[in-house]
Write a structure and sequence with these properties.
The chain has 203 residues and is α/β, with parallel strands linked by helices. It has 6 helices and 9 strands, in the order βαβαβαβαβαββαββ. Bound molecules: 5-O-phosphono-beta-D-ribofuranosylamine. The site of 5-O-phosphono-beta-D-ribofuranosylamine has 14 residues, from helix 1, strand 5 and helix 6. Keywords: Purine biosynthesis, Transferase. GO terms for molecular function: phosphoribosylglycinamide formyltransferase activity. This is Phosphoribosylglycinamide formyltransferase. One of its GO terms (biological process) is 'de novo' IMP biosynthetic process.
């Protein structure tokens, strides 16, 4: 499965995906990593593994759609089959999404539909939930609302801060994302409306 990863920052999820591929746990290849931020550590991580790393500067485009179409162009040039959002801090326009129907996935650091949007771990900690986690979902036109593929749950402890909770969730993200991508690579994931069916799962 040919992946194209979009990332804006640290890129620890990108790294987890790279590592899973190198350990032969994920039958996929990362064809290109694209960022909207020149200094994104994700770009550096890609280069370290000889993966094409491309910065697309939003300031060079007149609007969101023009920008998104520039991203589409790069992804098509690299023949990307699945677009993987890994800390990509922009909402994609419908013009982008129509080029990859049910072929865009995202990871979010909460148990959706709770706490969509920015700083989800802090939102969860401030709310006082006893459990939180992370979610991998298909991407639709709205923020963090697409069909859910899989989730992992983590407890929130009494002495947690938003930061310690975020760390605990991040560890799980790094397991969850490669696992879901492998299911997709195996052709086991089907979407019907809001429901996602994964063949061969016991639950
Ligand atoms: C992760 O917490 C992910 O869930 C969210 O953005 C963060 C990206 O972290 N969408 P990283 O860049 O993968 O380290």
């Amino acid at each position: 499965l040919k992946l194209g990863v979009l990332a804006s920052g640290r890129g620890s999820n990108l790294q987890a995906i790279i590592d899973a591929i190198e350990r032969n746990e994920l039958d996929a290849s990362i064809e290109v990593v694209i960022s909207n931020r020149a200094g994104a550590k994700a770009l550096e991580r890609a280069k370290n593994h000889n993966i094409p790393a491309i910065y697309v500067d939003p300031k060079e485009y007149t609007g969101k759609e023009e920008y998104d179409l520039a991203l589409v162009k790069v992804l098509k040039r690299y023949e990307v089959e699945l677009v993987v959002l890994a800390g990509f801090m922009r909402l994609l326009t419908p013009r982008f999404i129509e080029h990859f129907p049910n072929r865009i996935v995202n990871i979010h650091p909460s148990l959706l539909p709770a706490f969509p949007g920015l700083e989800a771990q802090k939102q969860a900690w401030e709310y006082g939930v006893r459990y939180s986690g992370c979610t991998v979902h298909f991407v639709d036109e709205n923020m963090d609302t697409g069909p859910i593929i899989d989730q992992e749950v983590v407890p929130v402890y009494q002495d947690d801060t938003a930061e310690t909770l975020a760390e605990r969730i991040l560890e799980r993200e790094h397991r969850l994302y490669p696992r879901v991508l492998q299911w997709i690579a195996e052709g086991r994931v089907k979407v019907r409306g809001r429901k996602v069916y994964i063949s061969g799962l016991s639950n």
